[in-house]
Amino acid sequence: MLISPLIQNLMAALKCLPGVGPKSAQRMAFNILERNRDAGLRLSALLQEAIHKVKNCESCRILCEETICRLCSHHGRDRSILCVVETPADVLALEQAGGYRGQYFVLMGRLSPLDGIGPDAIGMGLFQERLKEGHIKEVILATNPTVEGEATAHYIAELVKARNIRATRIAHGVPFGGELEYLDGGTLARALLARLVV
Amino acid sequence: MLISPLIQNLMAALKCLPGVGPKSAQRMAFNILERNRDAGLRLSALLQEAIHKVKNCESCRILCEETICRLCSHHGRDRSILCVVETPADVLALEQAGGYRGQYFVLMGRLSPLDGIGPDAIGMGLFQERLKEGHIKEVILATNPTVEGEATAHYIAELVKARNIRATRIAHGVPFGGELEYLDGGTLARALLARLVV
Hints:
The structure is a homodimer.
Chain A: H1 5-14, H2 22-35, H3 37-53, E1 55-56, E2 63-64, H4 70-73, E3 78-85, H5 88-97, E4 102-106, H6 124-132, E5 138-141, H7 147-162, E6 166-169, H8 185-193
Parallel strand pairs in A: 3-4, 3-5, 5-6
Antiparallel strand pairs in A: 1-2
Helix pairs in contact in A: 1-2, 2-3
């Protein structure tokens, strides 16, 4: 082999990053070794530290190094509304959109029986405990509009309604800036079904 | 801030990788922490090991963990031809193209007086020693056809010719598969100037 084994191993390890193929991995490895060694060492140290210290918040399951995350311990958030999302990235997207002042519950996945992901894997035990606390008046289901996301939302809605708590689903329809001409049929059909009186 | 400091620092560190912006860094950090922790630890360890162990080959300056790289110590390579390139990635590209059986010298950069990169920074001391060994009959200059690459090739050609060794430059012209219509004027002008009798 032309490249030395250690550099080859580094390239292979870089390919574990999402969106990084053989060519990008090669470029990254050479870039670090040629002129970015300090940044590479910092990245190595932070990867290790983050992997060892970052856990799930014991209240909402989001990734954080604290026991209870900043959002859950924030006094300004409305504790009567709980928004259920699949991933921490979804929380970021909703927070960046602004307007929501309640709390979150992060499933860290979605129900997927074929992959062996059942209610335990998406934290339903902790979720039931949250519901039992008694101050939650509404649960907003903001899982993705995929088959598995819909099934997950349906499953959680049943749990919520069994405790006489209001369960709502975020609206699905034509996105702002989207053109009807280029929209898929499923979204259009849903937008028609869910039409509102103006 | 919404994201915990440690995850934010990890995202910032990931941005040191070429081609990684804020959004990719976020995706990479969450991907590793959510479901790729083993791969992340392996990447962290390999980054550290490679940065500490990978040096420049003492014969051709390519990146490797050995004192003399595999190409330089390979008995099947023609030691009378030396191909000068800017980076290790250029060596890979030439080897993948096939056909070249000589040895390499990797500048690890190019002359760039404005950035303070002089002959020492591109290993001209070692290069002169290689020339002194006496078995080199031809030096192929394969630096990039940029202003700095051309200047570097010109500088090295003078060193080589001063020792009565043949200096050649790789051909520049219309690339295979390229269409004249879309080619830049500089390349076309060069292709015309360097035309060959058929």
